[in-house]
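Students often ask why inverse folding is considered easier than folding. One informal answer: many sequences map to the same fold, so there is more than one right answer. In these notes we will look at a single instance of the problem. The structure comes first.
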């Protein structure tokens, strides 16, 4: 098979993807470019556009090479966060330029380069072994790519997975190409994520003059007492694979700048990152219990609004993590830590369908000005993905 530069040069493909400013929810042709490259490798591509009330339409891609199981899937996103002020960057944030061995641009780390690395890994596999129908242990390779990971995540991976389920399309195993490494390529694999719950607590009082507090009801005083109850006792001490759950206040607002006015209401916003000792429902009940305990028997008018970003999940160490560790050691000489740290990712949706782990590039510069990755890391990541595919489908060893 004769591969063009896009399917045998991950850095070049990453550059071309970065040059398309696909800031959530814009596509800017990036899905079309990617599907065009994959079609040359023999993939059957489905471009799916999803929308819902009060949200923007999102362009997504599911591409599959082969029609037999097991179906090994790579998941990722082509959307990126805004670049911020252009003067904060040394060059155009969507130039995809290379300087001193580093590839620069929004999405270089998170995570267009990882997508390019995987596509080129599949290109190398097909060059060496042909299409899946000729493999000793036939199967399929697929890509599940969304344009909505950095946004509300409503019209992306979640809906694409639901669409696949309706088609009775099964994903057997999945790697998400998020930038998991903290310092150097190969130092960390994510095998789970903490759950995330956002809460808004509103205390309603009676507005009045600070000189006449008996004619008012100060919601701020009650809010302080409740918040103290919420944060005073740790949620837990952590588990074998997860750090302790955390309760963090993110905002307190009373909508009042006058020093002689008791406000009518006080609002607090918080986030809880919880481990596998809890579910979102058990966390909700715990928060409500602590609020009631703080209120005691006082008649306090309050409202609690809860939004769950994702449940905690864990893919226990086993076949998938063993393949990743072995491949990473083979290419980098490093043994990665199996971690569950960090925020949420689309793995929180995929875990309902198959075992999932995350491994991509170094994330030190993601979402920052002058986001960049080492070109050598992009090439090495592609080799790691080649090794992963080989081990998963039990290809014989070869010298690349």
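Output (designed amino acids):
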């Amino acid at each position: 098979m004769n591969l063009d530069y896009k399917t045998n040069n991950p850095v070049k493909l990453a550059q071309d993807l970065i040059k398309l400013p696909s800031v959530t929810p814009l596509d800017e042709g990036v899905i079309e470019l990617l599907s065009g490259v994959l079609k040359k490798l023999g993939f059957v591509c489905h471009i799916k556009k999803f929308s819902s009330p009060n949200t923007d339409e999102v362009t997504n891609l599911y591409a599959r090479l082969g029609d037999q199981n097991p179906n090994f899937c790579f998941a990722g996103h082509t959307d990126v966060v805004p670049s911020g002020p252009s003067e904060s960057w040394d060059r155009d944030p969507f130039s995809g330029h290379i300087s001193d061995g580093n590839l620069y641009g929004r999405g270089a780390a998170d995570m267009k380069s990882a997508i390019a690395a995987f596509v080129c890994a599949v290109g190398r596999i097909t060059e060496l072994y042909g299409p899946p129908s000729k493999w000793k242990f036939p199967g399929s390779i697929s890509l599940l790519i969304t344009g909505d990971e950095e946004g509300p995540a409503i019209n992306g991976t979640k809906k694409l997975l639901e669409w696949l389920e309706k088609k009775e399309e099964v994903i057997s195993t999945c790697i998400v190409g998020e930038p998991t490494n903290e310092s150097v390529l190969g130092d960390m694999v994510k095998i789970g994520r903490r759950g995330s719950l956002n809460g808004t607590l509103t205390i309603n009082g009676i507005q009045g003059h600070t000189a006449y507090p008996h004619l008012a009801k100060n919601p701020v005083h009650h809010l302080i007492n409740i918040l103290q109850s919420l944060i005073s006792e740790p949620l837990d001490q952590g588990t074998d694979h997860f750090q302790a759950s955390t309760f963090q206040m993110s905002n307190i607002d009373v909508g009042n700048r006058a020093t002689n006015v008791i406000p009518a209401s006080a609002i607090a916003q918080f986030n809880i990152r919880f481990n596998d000792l809890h579910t979102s429902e058990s966390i909700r009940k715990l928060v409500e219990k602590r609020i009631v305990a703080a209120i005691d028997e006082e008649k306090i008018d309050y409202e609690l609004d809860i939004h769950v970003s994702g449940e905690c999940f864990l893919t226990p160490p086993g076949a998938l993590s063993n393949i990743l560790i072995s491949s990473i050691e083979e290419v980098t000489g490093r043994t990665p830590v199996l971690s569950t740290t960090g925020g949420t990712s689309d793995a929180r949706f995929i875990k309902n369908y198959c075992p999932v782990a995350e491994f991509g590039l170094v994330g030190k510069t993601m979402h920052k000005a002058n986001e960049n990755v080492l070109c050598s890391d992009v090439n090495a990541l592609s080799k790691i993905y080649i090794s992963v595919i080989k081990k998963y489908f039990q290809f014989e060893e070869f010298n690349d």
